[in-house]
Design goal:
The complex is a heterodimer of chains A (540) and B (346). By secondary structure, chain A is α/β, with parallel strands linked by helices. Chain A folds into three domains: 186 residues, Dimethylsulfoxide Reductase, domain 2; 188 residues, Rossmann fold; 112 residues, Beta Barrel (Barwin-like endoglucanases). Chain A is 32% helix and 18% strand. In chain A, the strands form seven sheets. Chain A has a six-stranded mixed barrel. A five-stranded parallel sheet of chain A has the order 3-2-1-5-6, with helices on both faces. In chain A, strands 9-10-11 form a three-stranded parallel sheet, with no helix packed on it. In chain A, helix 13 packs across helix 15. Chain A is globular, with a radius of gyration of 24 Å. A five-stranded mixed sheet of chain B has the order 2-1-5-3-4, covered by helices on one side. Chain B is an alpha+beta fold. Chain B is built from eight helices and 16 strands. Chain B folds into four domains: 74 residues, Ubiquitin-like (UB roll); 144 residues, Alpha-Beta Plaits (2-Layer Sandwich); 35 residues, no CATH class; 40 residues, no CATH class. Helix content of chain B is 25%, strand content 19%. The chains are: A alpha/beta (540), B alpha+beta (346). The interface between A and B is large, with 143 and 109 residues. Strand 9 of chain A pairs parallel with strand 15 of chain B, so a sheet runs across the interface. Bound molecules: iron/sulfur cluster (SF4) (2 copies) and FE2/S2 (inorganic) cluster. One iron/sulfur cluster binds next to helix 4 and helix 5 of chain B. The site of one iron/sulfur cluster has 11 residues of chain B, from helix 6.
């Protein structure tokens, strides 16, 4: 979430889940919320029943469209053009918050210039959304009292994902919809503890609490706390590590609970890269596709076998408790790490996980007030700096951490790979309700597998007719990087020319096809848009 | 604000409050079967009847709003007789097989029969007999145990927004089912299971795994998506036998199919149980000491030869905060590199 951090000095959901039901307008862009975040989806439906209006912007007719006042079916990868045109209308209709812009933001004038030309008519050509719908959506958002924006990977998984996030932030800033209850900019994080992993500094340029490794005073603080020298050089991101492994500059990789073979774009490339390492350690609960390649595999514990905390998408720390003991010789990840550290001559000793949390609180004030005792009662949302602080449901009440929040002019850039004569379809990938991420957990739950047993490709009825393909028929889908076979699911959810594949299935891994092209700032691969060819699988 | 008395006790509530909610706010119990605080009132079971002075018929407290200076009695011999009769009528068309019912011990109907002492039945007669089974993988639907309280229909419509089931037919044949009595095919969130007051709706995976006896309940947080729903794991003999959720947390007791039914991976036979070391292309079992010694020696050799930045670490969004903290501290303070990331970008 580098984009948001640049604008606000902090990158997380600005508001909280319970506040959703008091939104009078929800702008849901690039998030199939009811399938990827079902319980947040329920709050959205609750808001709807209480009279809120919903704008859905999504290339697919997702379930939430049933509840929407307006559905903007923009072409994949054209979010910036759509948002800029919406902001253009807001500017023209004077639906902006001048006071807020003057007091709490900077860079408005340059930003204003940047959107002057982008009329709804121009945006219609790029996005395929009728100009009048763009105007209608803008007026809905502009006139609402408590509008909030929600988005997920639909926004960030593009080579220009950071730009998309800037654009969303611009929209909230110009209308003053930040620092207030039931408004805000709300990225919905995909996995249970992605927020926590980022908060805890599992990012190459930041220590826990978003403190930069290249700032000497900060490095000094951590070096003292950990009584050691620390490297000032920002490290490599996950995707860069794979590239470095491929080139040979990265020699060893230690992977804890990840399965990049399935989740990374361009699977062939990932496999080659991991195979060229001198040494690969994988610590996991299952023999994943990645673990198969490892020199050493370590059996670890799952969520039900350990003590600790998870932080959900609204910054809420909640308790994880041990309910059963791990199978066989499997051990907790924490004790494995401490043990390896010990063998390398560095003592990392903690008697219990709460001591770890205390150490974190000493280095990152936003969680200094969180204790296991307090979490017994209920979760706490950071910032929670002191033992009597109630936690923070919504951010920026009194201002932005970096002082003034900056507008960032963003111009539309087409996706890196667009359809052409050889590869005429746009492929987007994503999740579905009954499976989860790379499937290593859900695919081992027989009931979930029974209702969602295999990969499929969603294709528009007209496109299917042209191919002469029936529902359930085997199709071959190829991109410039690879080719997979899977069943057709004929549906009017995607627009014509667009196909969708869920990415949970290793035997028909969508990421054989996708593009490893990276966003230059965030280094998120372009998983949402690539060009493919779809054919009937003959000889079957 | 309105004042009323309930069983002689003075109670003050905001306008629009029902008699049932007023009583509950004063900790006065009234039995209910079809009422759920998060669903629209239904008034179907009539168990919540009370006497109101000046009205000569008992009223259903779950649907009747408080009026100023109302005098309410929640328990009188006449009311209790009626409640017992209602229960007898329900039980006259109920399998009464609590011995093998998944819901035993946590069943509202069983509990009410117990408190009202309903055992042998004056109304013994014809019983509904449904032989058809629903073959969906998640939810057992034993409609002979259904008391037609309609909670499942309401939760599916009002909370889940799906409307997969409804009441079909009338009178004795009335029945809750999906359209055309097909097998249930829906989002399988199990919200309906969580509100069912009897054993009519249960999780198929629960069957004969354990009910109340020797079962511990442990509150924790869901391992799947970023919503962070709270889960209560029901554990018997070191095995998770079902999952439920408290209604006073962020998810208000509602879950999705992964959170509610996706727990069996924990006990999957595929779980890794011992460290493995690859030799000549195949993994063989190893002891912890052997595996960890190997890791330490390889990492320190590679670090010495190529520098710490030749080593990288990927941590997991599935691990806890504490584990993630320790992992990045290990990479930074022990290995000496900032090459540490997780897959949020993906
Ligand atoms: S499982 Fe959920 S969607 Fe299906 S019938 Fe029950 S409440 Fe409705
Ligand atoms: S129960 Fe479902 S919605 Fe809730 S955290 Fe788990 S996966 Fe997410
Ligand atoms: S609870 Fe009032 S009628 Fe059922």
């Amino acid at each position: 979430m580098a984009g948001l951090a640049t604008v606000f000095g902090s990158g997380a959901m600005t508001n909280s889940i319970p506040e959703i039901e008091n939104n009078d307008l929800l702008f849901v862009i690039g998030s199939n919320t009811t399938e990827t975040h079902p319980i947040i989806g329920l709050r959205m439906k609750k808001a709807y029943r209480r009279g809120a209006q919903i704008i859905v912007a999504d290339p697919r007719k997702i379930d939430l469209v049933r509840f929407s006042a307006i559905w903007l079916q923009h072409r994949p990868g054209t979010d910036v053009a759509l948002l800029n045109a919406i902001m253009h209308v807001l500017l023209k209709e004077k639906l902006i918050d001048k006071q807020f812009i003057a007091d709490r933001t900077e860079g408005f004038d340059a930003f204003k210039k940047s959107i002057e030309d982008i009329t709804p008519e121009k945006a219609e050509k790029i996005t395929g959304v009728p100009a009048k719908d763009i105007v209608k959506a803008a007026l809905l958002y502009g006139k609402a009292k408590r509008p909030a924006i929600y988005y997920t990977m639909g926004i960030t998984q593009h080579s220009h994902g950071t730009q998309n996030v800037f654009s969303v932030a611009n929209l909230a800033l110009m209308t003053g919809n930040l620092g207030k209850e039931s408004t805000g900019v709300n990225p919905l994080r995909g996995q249970n503890n992605v927020q926590g992993a980022t908060d805890m500094g599992c990012i190459p340029n930041q220590y826990p609490g978003y403190q930069r490794v290249d700032v000497p005073a900060i490095r000094q603080k951590f070096a003292e706390a950990w009584s050691t020298e620390l490297s000032p050089k920002p490290g490599l991101t996950a995707t860069e590590m794979v590239l470095a492994a491929h080139e040979g500059s990265l020699k060893a990789l230690y992977i804890m609970g990840e399965n990049p073979m399935i989740s990374d774009p361009d699977m062939q490339h990932t496999k080659k890269a991991l195979q060229s390492l001198d040494f690969l350690v994988v610590q996991d609960i299952f023999m994943t596709e990645t673990a198969r390649l490892a020199d050493v595999v370590l059996p670890s514990s799952c969520f039900a076998e350990k003590e600790g905390t998870f932080t959900n998408t609204e910054r809420r720390l909640q308790k994880v408790r041990r309910a059963v003991t791990p199978p066989g010789l499997a051990r907790e990840d924490s004790s494995i790490i401490m043990d390896i550290a010990g063998r390398l001559g560095s003592e990392m000793r903690y008697n219990c996980m709460e001591e770890v949390l205390q150490e974190i609180g000493g280095l990152w004030p936003a969680v200094a007030g969180v204790t296991y005792g307090r979490l017994e009662e209920a979760g706490l949302q950071w910032p929670c700096p002191t033992p009597d602080h109630p936690g923070t449901p919504y951010l920026f009440k009194g201002g932005f951490p970096r002082g003034k929040a900056a507008f960032t002019p963003v111009s539309f850039e087409p996706s890196k790979e667009l359809p052409d004569a050889d590869y005429p379809f746009i492929l987007t990938t994503g999740r579905q309700l009954f499976q989860y991420h790379t499937g290593s957990m859900t695919r081992r739950v027989p009931e979930l597998n029974e209702v969602a047993p295999e990969a499929y490709i969603e294709i528009h009825p007209d496109d299917a007719r042209e191919l002469g393909a029936d529902d359930g028929e085997m199709l071959r889908v190829s991109s410039r990087r690879g080719s997979i076979k899977l069943k057709a699911r004929i549906s009017d959810r995607p627009a014509r020319g667009l196909v969708f594949i869920p990415f949970h299935y290793h035997e028909a891994a969508a990421n054989m096809l996708t593009n490893a092209e990276l966003d230059p700032v965030c280094k998120i691969p372009e998983l949402k848009v690539c060009a493919v060819r779809v054919e009937k699988e003959t000889g079957r | 604000m309105l004042h009323l008395t309930i069983n002689g006790l003075r109670v003050t509530v905001p306008e629009g409050t029902t008699i049932l909610d007023a009583a509950r706010s004063a900790d006065i119990p009234i039995p209910t079967l079809c009422h759920h605080p998060k669903l629209t009132p239904y008034g179907g079971c009539r168990l919540c009847i009370v006497e109101v002075k000046g009205i000569n018929r008992p009223v259903t407290s779950c649907t009747t709003p408080v009026a100023a200076d109302m005098e309410v009695a929640t328990t009188t011999p006449a009311i209790e007789r009626m409640r017992k009769t209602i229960l007898e009528l329900i039980l006259s068309d109920h399998p009464n097989d609590c011995m093998v019912c998944e819901k035993a011990g946590d069943c509202t109907l069983q509990e009410l029969a117990y408190f009202y002492g309903v055992s042998d039945n004056r109304f013994e007669g014809e019983r509904r007999c449904y032989t058809g089974k629903d073959h969906n993988p998640f939810i057992g639907r034993d409609m002979e145990k259904c008391i037609l309280c309609g909670k499942c229909v309401r939760v599916c419509e009002e909370v889940q927004g799906v409307g997969a089931i409804d009441i079909a037919y009338r009178g004795f044949n009335a029945k809750i089912c999906p359209p055309f009595e097909k097998d249930l095919s829906c989002e399988f969130c199990g919200q309906c299971v969580s509100v069912c007051p009897t054993g009519a709706l249960t999780g198929k995976a629960w069957t004969q795994r354990g009910r109340q006896k020797d079962v511990r309940e442990i509150d924790t947080t869901c391992p799947y998506c970023g919503c962070g729903c709270s889960l209560t794991l029901h554990v018997r003999r070191n095995e998770i036998v079902r999952v439920s959720s408290r209604d006073d947390t962020i998810n208000e007791g509602w879950l999705c199919p992964k959170g509610r039914f996706g727990y069996t991976f924990v006990h999957s036979r595929d779980r890794l149980k011992t460290p493995l070391i690859k030799e000549k292309g195949v993994h063989r079992e190893a002891s912890w000491d052997e595996a960890l010694d190997l890791i330490a020696s390889r990492l320190s050799k590679i670090g010495k030869k190529h520098g710490p930045d030749a080593i990288g670490g990927l941590s997991s969004a599935r691990c806890t905060n504490e584990e993630n903290y320790l992992f990045q501290k290990f990479m930074r303070a022990v290995i000496g590199t900032n090459n540490v990331d997780h897959c949020a970008r993906l």
